[in-house]
Write a structure and sequence with these properties.
Elements (H helix, E strand, L loop, with lengths): L2 H31 L7 H12 L3 H24 L7 H39 L2 H7 L4 H40 L3 H11 L2 H29 L4 H30 L4
Length: 261
């Protein structure tokens, strides 16, 4: 066959696979949403502990070092304009608007998202999900829905912790090490950061990222081939797709939220 025709045929197959994947993801999401109200409280609490508590260390340490870097870089930029007192504003707005939700979501995808995909993929390869269906137990209700609620609740809380720890880290560097005025650091931050326009929009971002990452992780786990290679590929796909989705959604929401002040 003509090489040009083979090239276009391969493109067509890739497009069809992409469209089919989007369709399967949409059907999966609708099925999960219809079962969210039937999830039990105890499994949800267990998943919040599994997803949130086990991700807390990496979120806290990462937020601290991001705050250190923001404190240093922000001071070096502002001092050249004689505005080093605005360091608190720079750090707070950078974290609550952008870095807090985005970096937390990327870490969340790498830590919790892969864990969810691997857990469900192993249950699928071990035929536990098939056994549940044979006994008349809905896996979406008892396995998927509690994990979705866990990710939905844990992700915004982790983003808030990341931002808070990052601000403290910037304070340690800017005030404790460099010597910026502590009163100016906090007072300008309080007067310039708006709870609705800045903090609430950052919180909305973290909620959207949590929903997106959790759904992708659960979908890849349920769709994984029941082999070790299939589970491994599913976890890799979770990280790649979630990261691209986070960055794309971040651009869309930033353009929508912060185009007008």
């Amino acid at each position: 066959m003509n090489p040009i025709l083979l090239f276009f045929a391969s493109i067509g197959r890739a497009v069809l696979r992409g469209v089919q994947g989007i369709g399967r993801f949409g059907i999966f999401t609708s099925r999960v949403v219809t079962r969210l109200g039937a999830a039990k409280l105890r499994p949800i609490v267990e998943q919040i502990h599994f997803i949130g508590n086990y991700s807390l260390l990496i979120i806290g340490v990462s937020g601290l070092f991001v705050g250190f870097v923001l404190g240093l870089q922000g001071y070096y930029v502002l001092v050249s304009y004689g505005s080093e007192e605005a360091l608190g504003v720079l750090v707070a707005l950078s974290l609550v608007r952008e870095l807090g939700p985005v970096v937390t979501a990327l870490l969340f995808a790498g830590r919790a998202g892969t864990a969810l995909t691997a857990e469900i993929g192993l249950m699928r390869s071990g035929e536990q999900l098939a056994a549940m269906e044979m006994m008349g137990v809905d896996p979406l209700k008892h396995v998927v829905a509690p994990r979705f609620w866990g990710g939905f609740i844990a992700m915004p809380l982790l983003a808030l912790i990341f931002s808070a720890v990052g601000i403290l880290g910037a304070w340690v560097v800017g005030v404790g090490l460099i010597g910026t005025d502590a009163g100016a650091f906090w007072s300008q931050m309080q007067s310039s950061v708006d709870i609705f326009h800045d903090i609430m929009n950052g919180f909305i971002k973290s909620v959207v990222f949590g929903v997106a990452v959790t759904l992708v992780a659960l979908f890849e786990g349920m769709a994984a081939r029941p082999t070790p290679e299939g589970v491994s590929r599913a976890t890799t796909t979770t990280v790649v797709v979630s990261s691209l989705l986070i960055l794309g959604l971040d651009f869309i929401m930033t353009a929508w939220m912060f185009t007008t002040v």
